[in-house]
Design goal:
alpha/beta, Purple Acid Phosphatase, chain A, domain 2, Aspartate Aminotransferase, domain 2, Aspartate Aminotransferase, domain 1, 6-stranded mixed sheet, 17% strand, elongated
Amino acid sequence: MITRILHVSDLHFGSGDNPNLEEALVRLIERVDPELVIASGDLTHRGQRDQHERVAAFLRRLGRSVLAVPGNHDIPYTFPARFTSPWREFEREWETTEPIFSSADAHMRNDEYGASEFFTHGMKIIGVPCRFGKMTLGDLEAAVARYPEGNRTGSPVVLSLTNATEAGTLYAVDEVAALVKFAKQNGMKVHMDGARFANAVAGLGVTPAELTWKAGVDLMSFGGTKNGCLAAEAIVVFEPGRFPDLDVLKSRAGHTFSKARFVAAQYEAYLGNGNWLKTASHANAMARRLADGIVAAGARLGWTPQANEVFPVLPKATAARLRAAGAVFHPWPADEVQIGPDEEMGRLVTSWATSAESVERFLELL
């Protein structure tokens, strides 16, 4: 329970800013040591973007949970923005009701009964058209163009990239960098869904840094569960202090539970000696072995796997025979692949625990 609150008002960033006063306020807040800082309007002097960015940076620098409440000076003094999109600049920094952009196939958009939109209190996840799980820069540009300033849905605030994708494909470093650059130019922060990040790093042969913060990614959900851990997931913030409310949001979402240190401790062994890449490399290798065997058996693939997911197109009779023998896989729709009336495409996922023997057993049944 929060027991110490500090309320500051009328900061008016952009009106004769004085660094000495800012430092004095920082020291005062550190002495008071509040659990929550309430900053009420006017946060800025004229509602300009650079002023909102500066006051947001100042408040986040405090390293406390912040409740920002705008005032009349926090809307722009220019026409027509004062009337058509008065809260746009404030919302870029603080609001949680604006659109998130992800690929149309992204797990966070399509699964878990809308949990991502629920826990963001109504942020709309916009599906960007994609091919084999990946959006292109042109796809993203076209999608964002449908949400211009003053529209009634809101201005884009977040781009989420999934790497490896739901289709087992990978964004290369230059592809991530190009998408991130466009997102940042349009005022968006960038999240990477890294449930299979280890498979992406192993598959591309690059460093984790090259694929994330060096390319401009702000935050990543770093998965361990799909690569050998037990219910272990981490949130990686690449700029310390960038998201000061994260602890509060984590607790509110029910992700702070007793004895969590025993779950988190897995990461020590997971990351030690490169184990996380060893297990991911094994999963990727088993997928390649499986894919090669499927083609050699006369079947076809929907596309070439790049990580640990394989999508064979099989006669329905063959798929039924495989399931009857104990194989577990699900049908997978894909507009990019032509599938006949007597065929189905399935999704096969290999893991750190997949053995060469189990792959060969599956291939024998083909």
